[in-house]
Amino acid sequence: MTTGLFILLIICLLLACAFEFVNGFHDTANAVATVIYTNSLKPTVAVVYSGLLNFTGVMTGGIAVAMGIINLLPMEVLVDSSVYHGAAMIVALLLSAIIWNLGTWWMGIPASSSHALIGSILGIGISFYFLPDTGGNGLINWDKVKDTGLALLISPLLGFSAAILMMFLFKRTIKNDIIYKEPIPGKVPPIWIRMLLWATCGLVSFFHGQNDGQKGVGLIMIILIAIMPGYFAVDEKVNIQSVSANINHIEQLMSKADTSILSDNQQNLYKTIFDCGSHFNEETKGKFKSSELALTSKFRLRTDIVKIKSASEKLINSGNLSLSQKEIVSLKRELKEAKVLIEYAPYWVIIMVSVSLGLGTMVGWKRIVKTVGEKIGKQHMSYAQGASAELVAAGGIGLASAFGLPVSTTHMLSSGIAGSMVAKKGLKNLQKGTIINIALAWVLTLPVTIVLSGGLFLLFRAIL
After folding, report:
1. Is the alpha carbon torsion for 145, 149, 152, 155 positive or negative?
2. What contacts 368, CB < 8 A, 6 or more positions away?
3. How far apart are CA 426 and CA 377, in angstroms?
4. Of 90, 93, 142, nearest in space to 116 by CA
5. Most confident of 156-165, 254-263, 430-439
6. First to last CA, the chain
7. Cα atoms in the 13 Å half-sphere on the side-chain side of 250
8. Is there a contact between 90 and 418 (Cβ–Cβ < 8 Å)?
9. Distance between CA 222 and CA 229 in Å, rounded?
10. 239 bridge partner residues
């Protein structure tokens, strides 16, 4: 690796850590707003508590969301004839997300780091349309974008609705009026209320780490694969021959299908599976570890598995694949086992992101805590409203992490607070100005970050 490339790698890794650090303090209010605002924990204790649970969430969250982030932008986009072009994309992507996060945090507006990151990724893909050597084609995995976009679109609506239901359940089950009153400044609430809010704060912090932390893991893996594909395109711990056996089984199952009923496009997908399978088996013949492979061939093997997986899933979803239900189940199992070669993250990457997010969580919380506690509703947030919003946010983020979908912690919680306010006195209980600002940030995040990242990428690519 040349000195210039090494410097670019370090810059990209530092920017990824900076994004997670900013994400930590930008989103800290989502977890600590209730315990600080209700005097249930002192601010210093609350942010350390939240930071530690964010750290734990990243460490235990797996990599499903991280792989979802990687799959938004096909890796073949990042690994072209010039590794510096890949570095230009990464720097543009991270800078645009960081700029938007800092701007909204400075203004005290709860905005989504997830939206900012995904908008930045889309901007990179769309900007390829304007490059002379790409034939006017943007390069984005639109199928993955649809899944991710749906999760981001629905999560605030679910948070709003679920918080109303949660407040209804609270009123049915908890008859003590104190939980529905506004906190008295400087007065500590009863221990049972404090324990409830400690628990909800901890849950939001933990699941925020699981979901948002994985986004940072995905970012760093994009960097490593783009700049050093020979070292990070595949997991060196995985036995190559076991993956080759999975691919052989996939081909055997696919060979049973009736190809005469497939459309022309489906015929091409079918052919791709066997072409990539043949190349993979030829390259890995007699080899057991990826360390035995040539550095130049590792990314191509990664691409083989990506194409086999994508083509197989499209054929399965088309409904035209004439295999029995048992064979379909077997096919899905083989695909899942084969992708372990490419869906991984080194332990040091997870630790790096955990530390960055945890440290970020411990600073910068004041600006947004006041918005969450006092400016969403016309009345200040009560204990029950804070607890219901955080329970809804924790549940929604936890489910999204389990299914490998990135969601907005910010929008889940702020919409939950809004729902809890509406549950008390209807829509008239919301502060119109704050709701408009949050909605504008929600609407503008994607277009602004798309334009910003795309513009920065085209600029950096011209320079590098």
Report:
1. negative
2. 26, 28, 29, 33, 105, 108, 109, 110
3. 10
4. 93
5. 254-263
6. 17
7. 36
8. no
9. 10
10. 289
Query: What is the average pLDDT value for the chain, to the nearest integer?
Result: 83
DSSP three-state, residue 31: helix
Q: What is the pLDDT of residues 168-205, one digit of tens each?
A: 888 888 888 888 887 877 788 888 888 988 998 898 88
Virtual CA dihedral for 33, 36, 40, 43, nearest 10 degrees? 130
Find the mean pLDDT for residues 144-170: 80
Phi, psi (5° rounding) for residue 160?
-60, -50
Q: What is the mean pLDDT of residues 347-362?
A: 86
Q: Is the pLDDT of residue 243 over 90?
A: yes
Determine if residue 294 is left, alpha or beta; phi over 0 gives left, psi from -120 to 50 gives alpha, anything else beta.
beta
pLDDT tens digits, one per residue of 4-35:
778 888 988 999 999 888 887 777 667 787 78
Structural contact between residues 371 and 111, judged by C-beta atoms closer than 8 angstroms: no
- Listed in sequence order, the residues at least 6 apart from 323 whose beta carbon sits closer than 8 Å to its beta carbon are 253, 256, 257, 331
Average pLDDT over residues 115-132: 81
How do the domains of the chain map onto residue ranges?
3-226+345-463, 234-341
What whole-number percentage of the chain has pLDDT above 90? 18
Of 199, 215, 304, 269, the residue nearest 23 (C-alpha) = 215
Query: Taking 70 as the threshold, does the pLDDT of residue 143 lie above it?
Result: no
DSSP bridge partners of 377: 430
**Quick one: average pLDDT of 122-143?**
69
Which residue carries 């390069």 as its tokens?
A: 139
List beta partners, residue 289: 239
Can you spell out the DSSP letters for 395-461? HHHHHHHHTT----HHHHHHHHHHHHHHHHH-GGGB-HHHHHHHHHHHHHHHHHHHHHHHHHHHHHH
Q: Inform me whether the pLDDT recorded for 346 exceeds 60.
A: yes
**DSSP for 312-367?**
HHHHHHHT-----HHHHHHHHHHHHHHGGGTS---HHHHHHHHHHHHHHHTS--HH
C-alpha closest to that of 104 among 334, 328, 439, 345: 439
* Entry pTM: 0.81
- For the cut 80, the answer to whether the pLDDT of residue 378 exceeds it is no
Secondary structure (DSSP) of 274-316: HHHHHHHHHHHTT--BGGGS-HHHHHHHHHHHHHHHHHHHHHH
Bridge-partner residues for 430, per DSSP?
377
